[in-house]
Request: fold
Amino acid sequence: MARGRFISFEGIDGAGKSTQHAWLADYLRTKGHTVVASREPGGTPLGEKLRSLLLAEPMHLETEALLMFAARREHIAQVIEPALARGDWVVCDRFVDASFAYQGGGRGLSWTKLEELSAWVLGNLQPDLTLIFDAPVAVARQRLQANTAKPDRFEQEQSAFFERVRAAYLRIATENPGRVRVIDATQTPSNINKTLENIVAEL
Ligand code: TYD
Reply:
């Protein structure tokens, strides 16, 4: 059985990645793939409990990073690795790049510490493809305000925080040209759908 494919979705809050994540999961199913759609933090019963804490509870930035990676360890063991071994496609709303962008770029945790955690928790696992949905912070904030009744702990951050997160995502894209594609998230949803169709056809 051929190993499945692993696609992660990234971007600052409000960029619109979750809508596209749901769309791509459905699209791949119409192409005959078995798709596991998941998210981080979360994706397992324990991970969803950690997510509730992470999105609500004030904590030290290293605690935040460690809990993100603890949830990820569980997610890889329980969901991602078994699915890929079965030959399924895994589409994940956020994965490890979010830790580099938010805890590293946004909060200022050292890149080296994140690389150590990543080496520990991921081993050789990396997404085959990472889609970064990119939009100016002002645009994303406007969308967020229009769509979010009760902003979580991250969504309550100031614009400067999201500027740093966005810059970190763009740095990750530059450093990983083979894996990462940046999508202009200011396009219409149907144009983005077409872009995604073309990109996954290459996989
Ligand atoms: P998000 O996908 O934005 O959830 P929703 O669309 O339901 O609001 O993810 C929740 C938050 O978690 C998001 O603000 C980014 C943050 N996050 C990190 O800070 N580090 C991580 O490693 C991950 C996976 C998420």
Notes: Helices lie at 17-30, 45-56, 61-86, 96-106, 111-122, 137-147, 159-175, 189-201. The mean pLDDT is 97. The first helix runs from residue 17 to 30.
